[in-house]
Structure formats: structure tokens, C-alpha cells
């Protein structure tokens, strides 16, 4: 039986020749990825592709299909993304072996996201608006809904099920997180603003191409159904009140293309708390999958104490700023 952990150059290059129908050079470079397996493969014709193998059990095949459908909608709308390659039968997902699926992308070079001037923030706003306009075309059925009682509750359950800790710290963590989610949930009851979102829109998932002034979006692995502001707040240099210039120009550009509900800016600190639980669950998933740890003391009593303190601090910040 072929295992995900045993993926290596020979299996990768064999699959590329089979799917693409072209010979490959004996060059297969692993690229950094904490969850999936990603390789760059050089083709005999001089082109290069990037192949991403999805870790089994993380997403269903239907969920992966919805990620690809969103990216193809973006491509059709001329939103700058890197879409997966489609074979002659119209497939963009390929099974390497039992339950090991992958997607193949053309290699695109780009520079990491850098500090933007006012015009740059406006262009970023227009790009995000165009992404969300394409997101309005469908409602995903197999992806997370970015709501405290849905996505965040799943993350909290996973943390408690997969991390050891003293009963005292675990109980206090659960009580604090549950109280926080109950408090912020009423803010998210109006889901009329929801659309398909990138879900993990931080600086590392924005690139600019050499010779071009445009920005393109990458890595839709965490695509979800949620509020557009989720795709904005992680790009800001600080909290909303200390990012007035960036928010002003980001929303100016956004509103040139699509409406934005100003009241959802109040959701940023609750979304930060939800991100806290999302990231902790992500680390726990890594440890459950392959025992890789983000921090040396991950899951220890010291770790629980530090994480609990951070959660309490965020709970207090939400109380002070929103009164909930």
C-alpha cells in the first residue's frame, strides 16, 4: 500500500508523466508545506509545474472540488490567481493511489507581498472585491462556514480531543473559549454578507509578478463561506484603530467594485479570537498527523498556561472594545 508519508520523487515524476503525457527531467524539488506535500517538477520541454498532494483525511473530495470550482470562477472573472491544470477529460484532481489526491499547477514566479502605498492598498481592495464578486456565484456545501458556533466550535472540539493537558487547564481553556464563542456569536447572525472567501488571506498568500504592477492570489486551501472582512484584517499592519490609512484606501478600492458592510469592521477582534482557535487546531492537526510541532513545548503545561492567558486577554479586549 502506498502511504502519504512515503511520497517521494519517483512516485511524483511517474504521476506527472502519466497525467501530463510528457517526459520529465530527473529534477523534483520538495517545497515548504506544513500540511500537504508540494513538489516542483521540471518537464523535458523546459516548463515546470508545481504539484500539491493533499493530506488524506483533511478534506473530502467534494470539498477539494469546491476549492477548485472557486478558483476556476476567479479565473473566468479575470481575478489574478494560479488555477490548476485540467487534463483532456476536464479533471483537475488526480488520484496517485488510494485516497491520495493531487493538483498540478503551472509554476509562476512572484515576489512576496510588500508594504503598499495608498494606490497599492486601493488596488488590493479592488482585487479582493473582484474575488468576492466571483464568490457570490455559488454557496459551498462541503466547506466550513466561518461562524463561531460552526467553524470555531469544530476547532475547539478538535483541540480538546487531541491535546493532553491537566484537567484544570483543559477545563479552564474550554470554559473560556466557550464563553467567548457564545459572546461573539450574536454579531455573526446576519449571514447575508457571507460569500465564498479565501479564508487564509495573509501576506504570504499574496504575490506580485516580476514586470507587473498587479497582485495575484495563491493557496485557496482554506477556502470557506464567510464574511468578506475575514479576507482583509490579517493584511492590516495593526488593529483597525491603528490602521486607519490602510483601511481607508483598502475600502475605497473595494467599494469601487462591490458593497462592503461597514459594521462588519467590528467583527475583526472576534475574528482574531476565532483565528487563535483555528491556528491552535492547525498545530494539533500537525502533531496528530506526523508529530511535527510548531513550538518546542507544544501541548505542555507551560503551553496550556500561555495559551489560556492569550485567550483570556483576547476575551477582555473584545469586552472593552465591543461591550459583549
Could you name the key traits of this structure?
single chain; 324 residues; alpha+beta; Phosphorylase Kinase, domain 1; Transferase(Phosphotransferase), domain 1; 2 domains; 5-stranded antiparallel β-sheet; 3-stranded antiparallel β-sheet; 8 helices; 10 strands; 42% helix; globular
Topology:
Blueprint: H1 9-20, E1 24-31, E2 37-43, E3 48-53, H2 61-76, E4 94-97, E5 100-106, E6 111-112, H3 118-135, H4 148-162, H5 167-184, E7 195-197, E8 206-208, E9 215-217, E10 224-226, H6 244-255, H7 268-290, H8 301-322
Antiparallel strand pairs: 1-2, 2-3, 3-5, 4-5, 6-8, 7-10, 8-9
Helix pairs in contact: 3-6, 4-5, 4-7, 5-7, 5-8, 7-8
Q: What percent of residues adopt helix (DSSP H or I)? A: 40-55%
**CATH fold label of the largest domain:** Transferase(Phosphotransferase), domain 1
List the total number of helices.
Answer: 8
Which sequence of SSEs, written as H and E, runs from N to C?
Answer: HEEEHEEEHHHEEEEHHH
> What percentage of the residues does DSSP assign to strands (E)?
5-15%
Provide the structure class. Answer: alpha+beta
- N-C termini distance: 53 Å
Based on the coordinates given, report the CATH architecture of the largest domain.
Orthogonal Bundle
CATH class of the largest domain: Mainly Alpha
Rg calc? 21 Å
Anisotropy-based shape:
globular
Assembly state here? single chain
Number of domains: 2
Mean pLDDT: 90
The low-confidence runs, each spanning 5 or more residues with pLDDT under 50, are: none
Q: What profile does the largest beta sheet have?
A: 5 strands, antiparallel
Spatial strand order of the main sheet: 1-2-3-5-4
Amino acid at each position: 500500500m502506498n502511504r502519504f508519508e512515503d511520497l517521494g520523487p519517483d512516485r511524483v515524476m511517474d504521476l506527472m508523466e502519466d497525467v501530463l503525457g510528457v517526459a520529465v527531467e530527473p529534477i523534483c524539488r520538495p517545497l515548504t508545506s506544513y500540511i500537504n506535500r508540494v513538489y516542483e517538477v521540471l518537464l523535458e520541454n523546459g516548463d515546470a509545474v508545481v504539484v500539491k498532494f493533499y493530506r488524506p483525511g483533511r478534506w473530502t473530495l467534494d470539498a477539494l472540488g469546491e476549492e477548485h470550482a472557486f478558483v476556476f470562477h476567479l479565473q473566468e472573472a479575470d481575478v489574478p490567481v494560479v488555477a490548476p491544470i485540467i487534463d483532456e477529460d476536464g479533471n483537475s484532481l488526480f488520484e496517485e493511489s488510494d485516497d491520495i489526491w493531487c493538483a498540478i499547477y503551472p509554476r509562476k514566479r512572484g515576489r512576496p507581498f510588500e508594504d503598499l502605498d495608498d494606490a497599492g492598498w486601493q488596488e488590493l481592495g479592488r482585487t479582493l472585491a473582484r474575488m468576492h464578486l466571483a464568490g457570490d456565484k455559488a454557496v459551498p456545501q462541503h466547506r466550513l462556514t466561518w461562524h463561531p458556533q460552526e467553524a470555531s466550535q469544530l476547532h475547539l472540539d478538535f483541540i480538546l480531543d487531541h491535546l493532553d493537558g491537566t484537567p484544570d487547564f483543559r477545563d479552564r481553556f474550554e470554559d473560556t473559549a466557550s464563553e467567548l464563542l457564545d459572546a461573539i456569536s450574536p454579531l455573526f447572525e446576519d449571514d447575508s454578507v457571507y460569500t465564498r472567501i479565501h479564508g487564509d488571506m495573509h501576506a504570504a498568500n499574496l504575490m506580485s509578478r516580476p514586470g507587473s504592477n498587479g497582485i495575484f492570489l495563491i493557496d485557496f486551501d482554506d477556502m470557506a463561506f464567510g464574511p468578506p472582512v475575514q479576507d482583509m484584517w490579517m493584511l492590516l499592519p495593526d488593529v483597525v484603530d491603528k490602521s486607519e490609512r490602510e483601511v481607508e484606501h483598502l475600502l475605497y478600492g473595494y467599494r469601487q467594485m462591490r458593497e462592503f458592510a461597514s459594521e462588519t469592521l467590528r467583527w475583526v477582534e472576534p475574528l482574531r479570537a476565532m483565528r487563535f482557535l483555528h491556528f491552535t487546531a492547525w498545530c494539533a492537526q500537525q502533531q496528530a498527523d506526523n508529530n511535527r510541532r510548531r513550538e518546542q513545548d507544544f501541548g505542555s503545561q507551560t503551553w496550556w498556561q500561555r495559551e489560556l492567558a492569550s485567550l483570556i486577554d483576547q476575551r477582555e479586549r473584545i469586552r472593552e472594545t465591543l461591550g459583549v
